[in-house]
Amino acid sequence: MLESHSHNVPRNIVLVGFMGSGKSTIGRALARKLVFELIDLDVEIVRGADGKPITRIFEDEGESGFRQRERQALEALAGHRSGKVIATGGGIVGSSENRRLLKSLRFVVWLSADPEVIFERISKNRDRPLLHTENPKETVRQLLAERTPLYAETSDIEINTSGLSMEEVAFGIKESAIHFFRCGGDPRNTGPLVD
Ligand code: S3P
User: Fold this and answer.
1) Nearest residue (CA) to ligand 1, atom 12
2) pLDDT tens-digit profile of 81-134?
3) Torsion-angle region of residue 83: left (phi > 0), alpha (psi -120 to 50) or beta?
4) pTM for the full model?
5) Pocket around ligand 1: residues whose beta carbon is below 6 Å from it?
6) Which pairs from 50-55 meet CB under 8 Å and 24+ separation?
7) Measured in angstroms, how far is the CA atom of residue 171 from the centroid of ligand 1?
């Protein structure tokens, strides 16, 4: 099993991916399955802003204010070594320092989805200030093009969630994480885990 005992290597599961890729929902299911604590960074950001919703943070402080809060919330996790499922916001990979911090928490899973599936999922709510544009579909296309290489660079594996159930995705992540931690984070090393 995936125990969080005294290893030097942190044993968290970090979920990255575009808006609408299912990070929060899958994070909840996965945390339940593994008996890990769920940390949803967007929730932490709102908490750190005394309950101010993300759309209001963007209105009052701009995207840069939001990104500063996002960095602080991520840095606050650096001391938490193991036993967490960490769901992140879609834009967290935009800074190299964030990417470094995410990797240090490892194991990083990129939840991807086909662009049409993403658009279908996110067009259902208005809580995403970055998509309050004249042409949200084009905005999604541009952001996806910018971010795709960054998700790839930051993550240990990619799971395309299009057409998969939440249970299937959570199961896939759990099995991959067990393998990843067992081989010390190096998939070429398939020998027994040595402490
Ligand atoms: C953002 C994604 C949102 C939230 C904020 C910015 C982004 O989180 O952090 O609106 O830059 O893609 P989700 O990915 O959970 O929607």
Assistant:
1) 90
2) 789 999 999 999 999 999 999 999 989 999 999 999 999 889 887 788 998 999
3) left
4) 0.91
5) 19, 23-24, 42, 54, 89-91, 128-130
6) 53/127, 54/127, 54/129, 55/126, 55/127, 55/129
7) 24
